[in-house]
Amino acid sequence: FPTRRSSDLKLLLNTAHYMSEYEKLMGGRKDKIKLPKDSLGISSTKDIESLIREHRPRIIVFDQLDKFRGFYKSEREDLRLGSMYQWARDLGKKHEAVIIAASQADSSAMNQKYLQSHQLRGSKVDKQGEGDLIITIGREDDTSFLRGLHLPKNKLDGGPRSDEARRHGYYDVFIKPEIARYEGDRKSVV
After folding, report:
1. 91 and 99 in contact (C-beta within 8 Å)?
2. What dihedral angle (degrees, nearest 10) is formed by the CA atoms of 102, 103, 109, 115?
3. I need a labelling partner for 46 at 20 to 30 A (CA). Which of 24, 122, 173, 188 fits?
4. Is 129 exposed, middle or buried (0-12, 13-18, 19+ CB in 10 A)?
5. CA torsion sign, 41 to 42 to 45 to 46?
6. In sequence order, what are the residues at sequence separation of 6 or more whose Cβ sits closer than 8 angstroms to the Cβ of residue 135?
7. Number of neighbouring beta carbons within 10 Å of residue 93
8. What is the 3-state secondary structure (H, E, C) of the chain?
9. Is beta strand 98-101 parallel, antiparallel or unpaired with respect to 133-138?
10. pTM for the whole thing?
11. What is the pLDDT along the chain (190 residues), one digit of tens a residue?
12. Contact present, 99 and 88 (Cβ < 8 Å)
């Protein structure tokens, strides 16, 4: 990892102060963003639906949606994953929430900078068919902080400020792992 900058250390050394600032920004509700942990046993569709009814979130992020239980067993993993992603899409519609689901890439994506949607782990067409936007993140080697972002699918209306020519763009960015942020020059590279 790169060495920490003084601004990163400042954040780490003044956690209480910045948590107080965060609480002010959230209107006094530091719990406005909920982060259920795996240790709470939340891994089934029933658990998720119960949480959503209780808290009524507007953005729902699934880290590794593929691992959730509550879907029929199938001889074909791609069909099981397709039904899972359809459930997530329907969940978002029903509760008027944005769904963000992270997935891993398959082994064909190793050391590739720009990944395609068919390289999502376990998918054929059903999994990626449920998404309105797919963003892939690749890298050419394990030693570089350079990442390749690609938008192989983008059905979203970008609005008046968007550039239609960049709807399915390829972008070079650098990851800053110490703060989990990507930085780049916003220019399409391919």
Report:
1. yes
2. -50
3. 122
4. middle
5. positive
6. 149, 150, 151
7. 9
8. CCCCCHHHHHHHHCHHHHHHHHHHHCCCCCCCCCCCCHHHCCCEHHHHHHHHHHHCCCEEEECCHHHCECCCCCCCHHHHHHHHHHHHHHHHHHHCCEEEECCCECHHHCCCCCCCHHHECCCCCHHHHCCCEEEEEECCCCCCCEEEEEEEEECCCCCCCCCHHHCCCEEEEEEECCCCEEEEEEEECC
9. unpaired
10. 0.74
11. 344 556 667 777 888 888 888 888 878 777 666 666 554 566 678 888 888 888 888 898 888 888 877 676 667 888 888 888 999 999 999 999 999 999 999 999 999 999 999 898 887 788 888 989 999 999 998 888 999 999 999 998 878 888 888 888 899 999 988 888 898 865 555 5
12. yes
Sheet containing strand 146-154, edge to edge, reads: 133-138, 146-154, 170-176, 181-188
Q: What is the rounded CA–CA span in Å between residue 84 and residue 39? A: 22
Instruction: Please identify which residue in the block is written with the tokens 């972008």.
Output: 171
Angle 16-19-20 from CA coordinates, rounded to 5°:
85
Tokens (6 digits) for 175: 């990851």
What's the CA angle centered on 187, arms 184 and 190, to 5 degrees? 115
